[in-house]
Amino acid sequence: MTDLHTDIQYLKGVGPALAKKFQKLGLTKVGDLLYYFPRSYVDRSKIQRSGELAAYAGQPILLRGRITRVNINQPRPRFYVLQAEIQDGDGIFCAVWFNQKFLAKTLAEGTEILVSGKVVYNNYSRRWQVETDDYEIITPAYRAGITPFYALTEGLTQKKLRQTVRLALEYLPFLADPLPPALKTKYTQADLPAAVRELHFPVKRDAWRQAHKRLVFDEFFYVELGAALRYARSKTELNGIRFQASGALLETYYRSLPYQFTAAQKRVIAEVLDDMAAPKPMNRLVQGDVGSGKTDVAIAALLCAVQSGYQAALMVPTEVLAEQHLAKIAARLAALGVKVGALLGKHTSSEKKEIYRQLASGECQIVIGTQAVIQEKVVFQKLGFVIIDEQHRFGVVQRQLLKTKSAENIDLLVMTATPIPRSLALTIYGDLDRSVIDEMPPGRTPVKTYHVPPRDRRRVLEFLRQHLRQGEQAYIIYPLVEESEKIDLQAAAESYAQLVKIFPEYRLGLLHGRLKSAEKEEIMRRFRAQELQVLVSTTVIEVGVDVPNATVMIIENAERFGLAQLHQLRGRVGRGRQEAFCFLVAALKSADSRKRINAMVETTDGFKLAEIDLQIRGPGDFTGVAQSGFPDLLLADLVKDEALLQTARAAAFALIEQDARLSRPEHALLRAELRRRSRGLIDYILLN
Length: 688
Ligand SMILES: Nc1ncnc2c1ncn2[C@@H]1O[C@H](COP(=O)(O)OP(=O)(O)OP(=O)(O)O)[C@@H](O)[C@H]1O
Prior knowledge:
The chain is about 40% helix and about 20% strand. By secondary structure, the chain is α/β, with parallel strands linked by helices.
């Protein structure tokens, strides 16, 4: 075979042994190599001089010179250091290679060489030296230019990778551009094979920019094409359940509420119920900042399903959340005569069996639980509606699994309190309709947030005392980091003991993940009932706790938390009409932690914080999502490339509007490329 499916091992200089190393990087075919883009570049036309070494301390440097001497040391067993003395215009410097004894043959005296690496100080020789990460012997064929650097695995060098990529590039004529010509002229100026070549071995800055843009467009385009296909299918091809959007149950519920819905709640409930009443399956995402009142939207939708004669499930990612939802929702539904069951890890197998029985018979109308809800054993009598909460931890795969639980095409509502920046939402939830609860219940004043250096902690505790005196309650949070859980737990317990001494006139509770469920529930119950005034806790209360009388939150070691988590935590206060306060006790050692804490002090807007978070951290969690079946985004940057994402999305949706299943012959290549990139996950639509 002489095409892109050619096995890498047949490329010159590779062979089966090296092919295994490539495999470790996920590269088996020539085509894979073409798309294995460099993670950085070095401009080799910019060569430094050895006289500047000290100025580059700790940084990368590129030097060129002639080797004058080579020797090998073995400071400890099985560890070799190869040192080369190299002369350039400024004098002689030393370059070192670790554990590459075999290079001695190549690095002969008199050879002219280019070395790149990091400048470090050698305590023995008391000189600055270069720890090399790459080198190139200057031969007559040598051309200065921009050199790519790839992510490597053990046993593969930059040199070998570059060489092999160069060989793969000879196959570029086989790389047909799947983009239909009309789209190509409309959205990109770069030709695909040329763009791929330019990205590996850039020649001109402008050309590289165009090439990069083209390939980022492609990454987004295929993600959105998959989303558009799923979306189109649910809209046009599937028959859904027609739920009754009004009825006695809903009416009773609305009347029982002690408050009026906000305009946003009204609008979102209407959007959800409209979808449910429509003859197509609902696929909707409801986003709402912490405390915006999502529970009422969930309950209205659940009741709509029940009053239409269907069962419904509420799925959450963790046990703690499941219990909190249960506490929040079960009582309100029970009051309306609806039977709610729970599937939790703490339940005994006989308790679980009983729930299974009630779900199979239809006795139990709503079930709340973790992923256990979609286990094979669970059989529903008539499942019609599912809510997935905090869905970003569920993948497309789980969503598909869910759909096998019913003979009918069930309606799906995804809810999240994690404000997802728009660009990320478009990518992860590209196939969902979107509703946003963009208004808080009335009377809330934004939580006043302060950064507190650890030495000022005492003053905060005095402030807390004043508020406790007024009958208000408080949370004190200690972060628990998994790796050091034991130490953290101890620290929390010790601080708790101290706090008990500081506040002898009040009752405090200590809540942490090691407690049994029943113990946790009891502590939460007492806090809710105001039997406890202060809840000292590790992060288990992160999501969902709702005690409006709690007005003060103190977060210890706040620099350890991510922004999303801090925002979630802060959302536990300021849920009532009283003014609320959040103190972030933190020593700001790194620039990132400073940015995070400043952002928290400056705004309470979850969406703004999410954008900032994305800028600071990059879409870190996104990799988790990628594993659950989305095509990878290797080059694209969700922050910088947002505009391009919008363009790609529009292009993809427009295309699917004309050819709902990519079945036209002129889209055959596109279809094949989409299947390749989504690793079979779209096949259920494309092949049926
Ligand atoms: N329209 C409203 N008017 C007044 N209070 C409301 C309104 N809607 C909800 N609430 C109250 O606001 C608080 C927060 O609501 P809810 O728990 O539904 O928020 P949420 O969006 O689920 O928040 P979280 O994501 O933090 O769990 C609750 O105490 C709830 O009773």
